[in-house]
Specification:
13 helices, globular
Length: 295
Amino acid sequence: MKSNLKVHLALFMVSLIYGATFTIAKQVMPEYVKPFAFILLRVSVAAVCIFIFHSIFVKKKITDRKDFLQLGISALFGVAFNMLLFFKGLSITTPINGSVLMMNTPIFVVVFAALYLKEKITPQKIIGIAIAAIGAILLMGGTHFNFSNDTVWGDIMVTANAIIYAFYLVYAKSLMQKYHPLTVTMWSFVFGWFVVLPFGAGEFMEINFSGFPPKIWLFVAFITIGSTFITYVLNAYALRKASSSLVGTYIYLQPVLATLIAIISGKDMLTIEKCCYILIIFSGVFLVSWRKNTP
């Protein structure tokens, strides 16, 4: 199989797994596992899997001790805070809302890249950010936007997660260039585990594992191994073989796949109003990411 095809298959699988995560996680939370307990479970299992995989296939070490501080900060934003906000938010909002609001991540990446990396923001990007922000606000509250809406706090948490994760992508860029992506990921999960432990320990002790039906065990395995460990490995492979711009474009598949999965499983409804808001966000993200080809 050609290398390019392998890269595209890897990135499609990442988008498919992430797309399914929004609906599958809602099957488990909060009836069987509360959000913070799920985060602790997810980080614990993924950290062990990544450590084993890294020890066998990568075997790279952090050579500069001062980089551990940056790794710790990356763990806060890339593992702990964003996951805690995402799963808590997803337990309140709907799969479609959650998946589409995550589309704001590339927009915030542009903002943080301008502030942190001094990259230029063009008028086109400013217009795109404004359009996408309007779409996100409308999606959270529609024509009756208010903070008493059943899902609005979940929507706000997922949006905050998108902002935090965007900062992580910019902040950790130098580490990803200096070390193997899985080396950075492994240490981020190790440090992140210590942060999520006090948040999830209490809820984790409340889990009744003996009461899990077989399908719930499968769903938990999918989230802890599939949407965490496997996606990080596939993304690391893609980052080594393809440009970051190609990897980034595949995030736009996630809300489409998540929406299809949520509708097929009967866990969400797609209205004409939501279609319009989704198109607004897509339009804004397109303007932010689109670059005119030059000869």
